Amino acid sequence: MWTAKTNAASNNGLFYGLTSESNCKAVCFKQLSCVAIDIGPVGCVLHYNASDLTNSYYAYGVTQFVLDRYCRSTSSVSTETPTATTTSVGNATGTS
Asked: Percentages helix, strand, coil for the chain, rounded to the nearest 5?
């Protein structure tokens, strides 16, 4: 899931170059250490350190997309313990 921050950017990213938003996101998503992108009129910047994002700054025309890789379930998680079922099985001699 991506969270967009308009007119925002952060320092210490790796300049990827002039590309589309979807391509920049795809490049970031394929790299497990990538945490965000900045996309604007001059190109795409990939961020690999979440601490860099704490000091984002105003950058007109740039959108920062922060990637959240954690899967969230929309269904509730059951906390019930299943009931054990036992089955009697004879031994190798045919007696129980």
From this structure: 15, 35, 50
pTM summary value: 0.71
Contact 76, 11 (CB under 8 A): no
Gap between the terminal Cα atoms of the chain: 57
Domain-located, residue 77 = no
* CATH number assigned to the domain comprising residue 45: 3.50.4.10
Strand 57-67 with 43-47, pairing: unpaired
- Tens-digit pLDDT profile for residues 48-66: 999 999 989 999 999 999 9
